[in-house]
Amino acid sequence: MDLKLDFSILKTLTELPGIAGRENAVRQYLKNLLSAYADDMRTDVTGNLIVYKKGSSDKNLLFCAHMDEVGLMVHHVDERGFLRFVTVGGIDPRTLLAQRVRVQTREGELPGVIGTKPAHITTEADRGKAVGVKELFIDIGLSGEEAKKRVEAGDWAVLDRSCEELGDGLVCAKALDNRAGVFVLAEIVRALKNPFYNVYAVFTVQEEVGLRGAATAAFGVDADVSLCLDTTGAADIPGCAPQDYITVLGGGAGITALDARTITNPVLFEKLKQICDKNGIRRQVRVAPRGGNDAGAVHLSKTGIPTCGLSIPTRNIHSNVEIVSKADVADVFRLAYAAAQEGLGDITL
Asked: What gap in Å lies between CA 45 and CA 51, rounded to an integer?
């Protein structure tokens, strides 16, 4: 399995804006990238991009990878031109302070920075409180009158951070959750040649706010099995005990046994581990007492679909300095590609 991944695609994907419900830039890029490789391509009402590749059997494999990232939505522009916002998806407010953002408006993009009351004029009571979203604002450097002309409630923002290589084969960027999974699925679509399964590669929307795109996509596909490609926390950092790591950066593909949304079909779980062992793919088992991904919606669709989440270990998840290992990304690709190309056999209980 000598397949090379084009990591320049990952860089482009991470730098595109696309919070939950506003994934158009990512979707359009994928349409342009994958149109030459698809037997069929369509966008459903929810906004999922569904790419179909015909296989050699009558069995259907549903892949999901969500396009959306966590971000911000403006709900008020004050008289001095400062923007108040809510978070879209789960963001720790500690990671937002003093960050650059790109505000997306009907007239184009505006740069801004996130601020709060400066430390040198805070009181002792202020310093004893954690900074929350209500204490934060976006400064776009415009007067109140001009800001109100250019920004309105419902406009949105993403964190402003370029994708950089770091250390020994690592990538640091915003939106690696889940543009890393999107990248893997895009590369699978480009690489598959006469796969065993009829492959439905679905780039889903609104995962970060409740797995919404996956729920509608799964209902529309008569899938025999599903694999959901996403990132997961790698807490292998100072201050965390080894039993709390979930996954380890550089440890290989994370195969989900359990998370807060799913318990993986045991036959499918074993088959995926066997593929790794047969093909020399590094793997680790993901047991996550909190969190979930598109698999949580997919496995409950209709009368049920055998589903497993395949995860890319990620440090600093839901921040603008997420970190993944290119080797882990490649391991998830190799596992998912082998499953689609060769098939998984009988996975009934």
From this structure: 15
Q: Tokens representing 31?
A: 């349409």
Does the predicted model carry a pTM greater than 0.90?
A: yes
Say whether both 182 and 294 belong to one domain: yes
Distance CA(103)–CA(242), nearest Å, equals 39
37: which 2 tokens?
Answer: 């490789």
The residue range of the domain holding 304 is: 7-69+174-342
Catalytic residue among 187, 207, 208, 322: 207
As for how many domains the chain has, the answer is 2
In a domain? residue 1: no
Return d(Cα 262, Cα 271) in angstroms, integer: 17
Query: Is-contact 92 318, C-beta < 8 A?
Result: yes
pLDDT digits (tens, 9 = 90+) for 296-331: 999 999 999 999 999 999 999 999 999 999 999 999
Same domain, 36 and 104: no
Residue 166 lies in a domain: no
Please state, in angstroms and rounded to a whole number, the distance separating the CA atoms of residues 239 and 301: 39
pLDDT tens, position by position, 185-216: 999 999 999 999 999 999 999 999 999 999 99
207 carries an active-site annotation = yes
On whether both 264 and 151 belong to a single domain, the answer is: no
State the Cα–Cα distance between residues 312 and 254, nearest whole angstrom: 6
CA distance 322 to 334: 22
